[in-house]
């Protein structure tokens, strides 16, 4: 029923902090395994798994406790991938979150205006590209000129560096009618700005609020007193998206994303930490550095930690 996989790469997600802080499952007490996703090779097979997989085959997996050199994955949950490339890892959580949320909640169609916050991040990069594939006009917020350049390279029509530009003023000036869809993962003041920028019948999709994850409760004081009135005035809506509630769509999304990735129709940017102060993220001991790097807003693309290949030599 199961196969054992040796991890070669594991993905870093903003929600790693929520999980380790016990916000997702208050019944779990430390110590417990953390991490959500990985990719590696099959090193051993259970009886029923041997009919579907072979030792050495590349597989990806989404399961709690993924931060491990070896992990046991139920064969029905393993995802065959063409090779053990970190680019495929970017699709497991980040890619599918963007794909499914925009498909199910975004109602994208040609000519709509889409605003993506944290657009150069792990999931933002996919929201930008998928919105462009739907023939939308895409605006992306980011924190550096380097990130602005990256966003232009993946098709973003209007990158906004919020460190040097006033996002609210730019949106008022360039998009006086507002934006039709917001893909929002920052929270706090960025969330409030996004609500204020919605067009008539605009839709805001909340996929996270990273600015509040490091507080004690995980929540930040917001600007919600006038929220009902703001939404009513514009016939606008806010929808939350949590990937676990959309697993019925997951296989379809992964299949399409893998095809686009293999056909080079999709940029799957990976940040292995080469530019981090202490260098590349290598080994499980570097996971904490990778998470800090993400919360400092330094990454371009999906942050991935590489596990030394030597751990695969024995089971």
How is the topology of this model organized?
Blueprint: E1 2-11, H1 15-20, E2 37-45, E3 58-62, E4 70-74, E5 79-80, H2 86-106, E6 113-116, H3 124-133, E7 137-142, H4 145-153, E8 158-161, H5 167-174, E9 179-184, H6 188-196, E10 198-206, H7 227-234, E11 237-240, H8 250-262, E12 270-271, H9 287-295, E13 302-306
Parallel strand pairs: 6-7, 6-9, 7-8, 9-10, 10-11, 12-13
Antiparallel strand pairs: 1-2, 1-4, 1-13, 2-3, 3-5
Helix pairs in contact: 2-3, 2-8
Q: Could you say what the CATH topology of the largest domain is called? A: Rossmann fold
- Proportion in β-strands: 15-25%
Task: Count helical runs.
Answer: 9
- Poorly predicted spans: 310-315
- Main structural class: alpha/beta
> Which value, in Å, is the CA radius of gyration?
20 Å
Strand count, sense and barrel status of the largest sheet are: 7 strands, mixed
**How would you state the average pLDDT, rounded?**
91
Number of strands: 13
CATH architecture assignment name of the largest domain: 3-Layer(aba) Sandwich
Name the helicity range.
25-40%
H/E element string?
Answer: EHEEEEHEHEHEHEHEHEHEHE
CATH class of the largest domain: Alpha Beta
Principal-axes geometry comes out as globular
Count of all domains = 2
CATH level-four homologous superfamily name of the largest domain: NAD(P)-binding Rossmann-like Domain
User: Between the first and last Cα atoms, what is the distance in angstroms?
Assistant: 18 Å
